[in-house]
Amino acid sequence: MAMFSQNPVLDGPNYSFAEAPQVRADGFREHRFNPYTDNGGTTVAIAGDGFAMMAGDTRSTSGYSINTRFAPKVFKIGGSTSSQEDANILLSVVGFAADGEALKERLDAICKMYRYRHGKPMTVNACAKRLSTILYQKRFFPYYVYAILGGLDEENKGAVYSYDPVGSYEREQCRAGGAAASLIMPFLDNQVNFKNQYIPGSGVGHALQERERTPLPRSDVEVLVKDAFDSAVERHIEVGDALQVMIITKDGIEEKILPLKKD
Amino acid sequence: MDHRPQAWGRPRDDVYGAYDASYMQTNNGPTQHTQQPIVTGTSVVAIKFKDGVVIAADNLASYGSLARFTDVKRLRKFAGTSVVGFGGDVSDMQYLDRHLTELSIDEAYKSDPGHSLNARNLHKYLSKLMYHRRSKFDPLWNSLLVAGLDDDQKPFLAATDLLGTTFTSPSLATGFGSVLAQPIMRRYAPDEESAAQLTQEKAVEVIKECMKVLFYRDARSMDKYSIAVITKDGVDLKENEKLENQSWAFADRIKGYGTQTV
């Protein structure tokens, strides 16, 4: 922990070495069971015109050890069976994996109950609100996860909703979550939302015009996501092994597994 | 007179005075949770091969650095089709063992013949149990490996720990084994495809090699161990194996770590 605490990019909870007894101000050592750990990993979600793409690496870590090289963290939600063939929503969870699994199973059960009672799948924005309330219900013993929900809205436009562990959420065009979020998010700001991009020769000072924002085509997004993860793998030890990509369009959900560096 | 059933068979208060329950152990204090493991088992190692899974753990239960119990069996059969390997607190292991015995009896009565819980079902059950207990701030201080076959009769191997974290991999190890044994096993089974090529003989050989390395370098380990091979034909569990052909002959070739000057 101390090794990286000076690094502003990795500031905040990162490696889970908090097992040692805490020394209190009065000098007594306090043994306390820590119900959380950090399993590393990173997720990215980007909304396009007629699609939404969710991606996550498949490495699961504890400290410097790799638990497994293949633990997917993007899930189909709310299909009518456990095979999730007719699912219309994607959920990615990163942070504490056991909480992530519990959260996924709860949201999935709720979406399945909705489908059973109403005879139609839940819309993405309804599901997004519901996920927020689920997270907030555990406000004082939170699910330690950064969740991102993806799907298509009523106009078949890509929708991405991002959350903090206690349920604050907003709809966005793109979001990175987890261990390397701080490495990937600025790249996405520039490449998806065209931040700091201006029209050449449009003027100086206030006359300078920003590049017009438009949703990216799918081919561009696929390249962007792969590049983002390849870069994160180089600079973050908790990211790597394989990249799981899910693309949701009006024709359904496609899944791809691409290799990443395993070092 | 008090005719309520609660009073039946008890000394009457109006004759003998109020019953003095002070000698009884009543739990009036705060509820005690496991704060730390006391008697512990060390690593469990396991690897998949083409027809099943091999899993092993030594027979030692340590009390801190004291080798306290030397014949503790840390591999447990379930329903004749799966094996659970326990690391961590031994009393919590014994609790889980009783719990699983009860579960398997209930399941044997309830379900149709040939439809008992398989390893995947068992792992899901145990991980839910572990997560539930951590959420109550009363964890079962163990890391578990569950080995067996899944719904499609394919080899299944998964882990869960005191936090309820779960993962699967072609090879798994708990405790010290995750740093000492896992790199050895990953040489033979880096991915599912290569695990599906491994023969049973090779897998057993790799596991025995891992147990030997662990005995060399894990101070809380022992040379007596249990090993189980799980295939379609059932579980072959041997609980009194002994490591063979160890030698520290290589030790005098190791240089550069200590204070030696030559």
Automatic annotation (TrEMBL), chain A:
<keyword id="KW-0539">Nucleus</keyword>
<dbReference type="GO" id="GO:0051603">
    <property type="term" value="P:proteolysis involved in protein catabolic process"/>
</dbReference>
<dbReference type="GO" id="GO:0005839">
    <property type="term" value="C:proteasome core complex"/>
</dbReference>
<dbReference type="InterPro" id="IPR029055">
    <property type="entry name" value="Ntn_hydrolases_N"/>
</dbReference>
<dbReference type="GO" id="GO:0005634">
    <property type="term" value="C:nucleus"/>
</dbReference>
<dbReference type="GO" id="GO:0005737">
    <property type="term" value="C:cytoplasm"/>
</dbReference>
<protein>
    <submittedName>
        <fullName>Proteasome A-type and B-type</fullName>
    </submittedName>
</protein>
<dbReference type="InterPro" id="IPR001353">
    <property type="entry name" value="Proteasome_sua/b"/>
</dbReference>
<dbReference type="Pfam" id="PF00227">
    <property type="entry name" value="Proteasome"/>
</dbReference>
<keyword id="KW-0963">Cytoplasm</keyword>
<keyword id="KW-0647">Proteasome</keyword>
<dbReference type="InterPro" id="IPR023333">
    <property type="entry name" value="Proteasome_suB-type"/>
</dbReference>
Automatic annotation (TrEMBL), chain B:
<protein>
    <recommendedName>
        <fullName>Proteasome subunit beta</fullName>
    </recommendedName>
</protein>
<dbReference type="GO" id="GO:0005634">
    <property type="term" value="C:nucleus"/>
</dbReference>
<dbReference type="GO" id="GO:0005737">
    <property type="term" value="C:cytoplasm"/>
</dbReference>
<dbReference type="InterPro" id="IPR029055">
    <property type="entry name" value="Ntn_hydrolases_N"/>
</dbReference>
<comment type="similarity">
    <text>Belongs to the peptidase T1B family.</text>
</comment>
<dbReference type="InterPro" id="IPR001353">
    <property type="entry name" value="Proteasome_sua/b"/>
</dbReference>
<dbReference type="GO" id="GO:0051603">
    <property type="term" value="P:proteolysis involved in protein catabolic process"/>
</dbReference>
<keyword id="KW-0647">Proteasome</keyword>
<dbReference type="Pfam" id="PF00227">
    <property type="entry name" value="Proteasome"/>
</dbReference>
<keyword id="KW-0963">Cytoplasm</keyword>
<dbReference type="GO" id="GO:0019774">
    <property type="term" value="C:proteasome core complex, beta-subunit complex"/>
</dbReference>
<comment type="function">
    <text>Non-catalytic component of the proteasome.</text>
</comment>
<dbReference type="InterPro" id="IPR016050">
    <property type="entry name" value="Proteasome_bsu_CS"/>
</dbReference>
<dbReference type="InterPro" id="IPR023333">
    <property type="entry name" value="Proteasome_suB-type"/>
</dbReference>
<keyword id="KW-0539">Nucleus</keyword>
<dbReference type="InterPro" id="IPR016295">
    <property type="entry name" value="Proteasome_beta4"/>
</dbReference>
